[in-house]
Amino acid sequence: MTTTTTTTGGGTREDIPWAELRKAATEAMRKAYVPYSRFPVGAAALTEDGRIVSGCNVENASYGLTLCAECSLVSALQMTGGGKLAAFSCVDGEGNALMPCGRCRQLLYEFRAPGMLLMTVSGIKTMDEVLPDAFGPQNLTEAGTAWTGSAP
Ligand SMILES: O=c1ccn([C@H]2C[C@H](O)[C@@H](CO)O2)c(=O)[nH]1
Ligand SMILES: [Zn+2]
C-alpha cells in the first residue's frame, strides 16, 4: 500500500489537527449573530506558525452587509499577528462541514500558505481545487502602486 503525503504550509496532510479545527469552528459558530437567517456558521484555520484563528458570521438588518464567518476569521488572522493559512475548516449549526461561499474562497485565497488544505463536504481538498485559476495578487503587476491614468 502506498501513502500519499501532501506538503502544505503547515507540514503534511497528516499533521493537520482536523478535529481541533472542527472544535474551534464549532465554538466560533456558537458566537454567530444570525437573527435573520438563523443559520450560524463557524470557521477555523491553522496558521503556518501553528496558531488557530476562528470567526463566526455576523448579520446585519441591511442583509447584504452580512459578514461571513470567513470574513471575521481573516480579520482575526490579521489582528493576531497575520501570516498565512495552512488548513481551514468551516461548520454549520449542526457542526457539519460547510463549503465556503465563492466570495469567501477568494478571501481565503489571499492568505493561503502553499498547499493550503480545506476540509469540505467531500473530503480534504486543496485551495486550487476549490478555486481553480484564481485571480490573486499575482495578477496585479505592481500591487500597491497608484493608478496613473495611463494604460499599460
Ligand atoms: O461561506 C459562507 C456562506 C454563508 N455564510 C453565512 C452568511 C449568512 O449569515 C448565512 C446564510 O447565508 O450563512 C457564511 O458565514 N459563510
Ligand atoms: Zn462567504
Protein architecture, described:
The chain is an alpha+beta fold. It has a single domain (3-142), classed as Cytidine Deaminase, domain 2 (3-Layer(aba) Sandwich). The protein contains four helices and seven strands. The protein has helices spanning 18-29, 69-79, 102-110, 127-130, and strands spanning 7-8, 11-12, 42-47, 52-56, 85-91, 112-120, 123-126. The strands form two sheets. A five-stranded mixed beta sheet has the order 4-3-5-6-7. Strands 1-2 form a two-stranded antiparallel ribbon. β3 (42-47) and β4 (52-56) form a beta hairpin. The radius of gyration is 16 Å and the shape is globular. The termini are far apart. The mean pLDDT is 91. The structure holds 2'-deoxyuridine and zinc ion. 2'-deoxyuridine is lined by residues 34, 37, 39, 41, 57, 59, 66, 68-70, 100-101, 104. One of its GO terms (cellular component) is cytosol. This is Cytidine deaminase. It is an enzyme of class 3 (hydrolase). The active site is at 70 (proton donor). GO terms for molecular function: cytidine deaminase activity; zinc ion binding.
